[in-house]
Amino acid sequence: MLQIKNISKTFNPNSINEKRALNNLSLTLNDGDFVTIIGGNGAGKSTLLNAIAGTWFVDSGQIILDEVDVTNLAEHQRAKFLGRVFQDPMMGTAANMQIEENLALANRRGAKRGLSWQIKPEEKQHFIEMLKLLNLGLENRLTSKVGLLSGGQRQALTLLMATLQKPKLLLLDEHTAALDPKTAKIVLDLTEELIKKNSLTAFMVTHNMRDALKYGNRLIMMNEGKIILDVSGKEKEKLTINDLLELFNENGELNDSIVLS
Amino acid sequence: MLTFSSLLRALPGNVAQGMIWGIMALGLYVTYKILNFSDLTVDGSFSTGAAVGVMLIINGVPALLAVIIAFLVGCIAGLITGLLHTVLKIAPILSGILTQIALYSINLHILGNKANQAVNVNEYHLLLSLRDTNKSILVALLFAIALMLILYWFFGTELGSAIRATGSNEQMAKAQGININLMKVTALALSNGIVALGGALLAQYQGFADVSVGRGAIVIGLAAIIIGTVVVGANKKEHNFLLLLGSAVIGGVIYYIFIGIVLWLKLPTNDMKLFTAIIVAIFLSLPHLKIKKKEKKDATN
Ligand SMILES: Nc1ncnc2c1ncn2[C@@H]1O[C@H](COP(=O)(O)OP(=O)(O)OP(=O)(O)O)[C@@H](O)[C@H]1O
Ligand SMILES: [Mg+2]
Hints:
The complex is a heterodimer. By secondary structure, chain A is an alpha/beta fold. Chain A has helices at residues 45-53, 75-78, 99-107, 121-134, 151-164, 181-197, 209-214, 233-238, 241-250; strands at residues 2-11, 19-29, 34-39, 60-65, 68-69, 82-85, 169-173, 202-205, 218-223, 226-232. Chain A contains nine helices and ten strands. In chain A, strand 1 and strand 2 (19-29) form a beta hairpin. Chain A starts with a strand and ends in an 11-residue tail after the last helix. By secondary structure, chain B is an all-alpha fold. Chain B has a single domain, classed as ABC transporter involved in vitamin B12 uptake, BtuC (Orthogonal Bundle). Chain B is built from eleven helices and two strands, in the order ααααβααααβααα. In chain B, strands 1-2 form a two-stranded antiparallel sheet. The interface between A and B is medium-sized, with 35 and 24 residues.
């Protein structure tokens, strides 16, 4: 269970660029919640995910993950609990390293790294089986450098890496935004499959309202560092794109980047 | 007299020296290629290794032990650059320069406040010396091979692969729970340890330690790495890591054979560093120039 209590974050305080990106935000996620997050540009969606991941520390408030107060833990310490996929497909993998080396790194997320060999022989078989699930033929390219893969392949691999060690929370920040529609669909379906199969708790930021409605059991809309809508279960199923558009309008936030189709 | 035999006679010495600089290049490889960190500490830590090695030997420490201690002192130099960068958030190049400058004074202290200190092969038992170039080549080769194997093993371990991940993609490394600051400090320490070890070997080979023996070490090391890369064609194809490490050592040897030829041709040695800098600049810019050429070609098509 994730508990976010009254977190605030102001960038560039006391300057002309001062920006309050998170405004006293509170939120509780139950285990197994798959939450889609929408909101206009600059609403604070990425900032919320970064606050959880520990990219920097919040100015005030508390973040508690399964009874562990992570508010003051460094980014690499929190990584133990978190799986992350970024918008930029280049961000989530090490391009100079092989597919199996990347997977081995991910398989040790949060574990001590010592002087034993980076990949155990028995791990390889497991990697091959996991890669087969992606249906991209990567299981035959274990020793290829990740830099040779396409954006979609890298994003699928990042997703696999994020879930290889079951995270307490999966953070997806527009992870299909840089992909072509067909690849985006493949990666999204894979996302749903992995979340279901491993019963993960997940946040997924998206600019695509259809996706926000289609995926997940809960939907959050953000504006100016606050949550302005939080619906789940049956209520979310009944929600339509028009409802969301109306809400955006009310907040003067209808914005080109909100993709409808 | 430009006789070919005089060139051949000088050759073993060039090979020995080149191999020692190749060892130094192995250290530089760790930061420059693996960690992706331009570390200027090396000019200082190479001299530190030379100074520590020589002072220990003339104070009765066995030569091999002196080399090992020089390695450890070099590690400390790298550690300091690492801390300047990771704790005090000073930019990589500046962190290295600060340590390098500080080391100049420290090296003078180590050398007993003298600019250089001799270690006579007749008085002390040295691992290598220009009196016996063949033995020196063999000893340098053994050190090079041992270091290559150690590096090959280390960068195949969990810790080593975490360092490689840090050099490849910091954001990814953090997301995998890797303490990137610790990785940077570790790699810098290891790198400068090897560089200092190279300095300790060179001082024994030439029979003295000089406070400025490491001046320009970064450029020589880069030259060795780059020449090696070109020789084994590593920029075109993917290569085994051991071969890449070996190419840096070979690059060092080729560089010193090149210097031997320059000396033999009686070209002005004062301009040697200028030549080196120009060559390194050309090779560093080659990938970029190739891209430009390709873009032009694509544009005209
Ligand atoms: N590291 C930072 N430094 C300064 N300002 C920042 C930083 N990160 C975010 N901001 C600012 O905080 C606000 C919220 O940004 P955030 O990236 O969270 O928006 P978002 O909802 O993810 O928007 P988008 O849909 O465009 O990705 C914006 O005004 C942004 O400029
Ligand atoms: Mg964003």
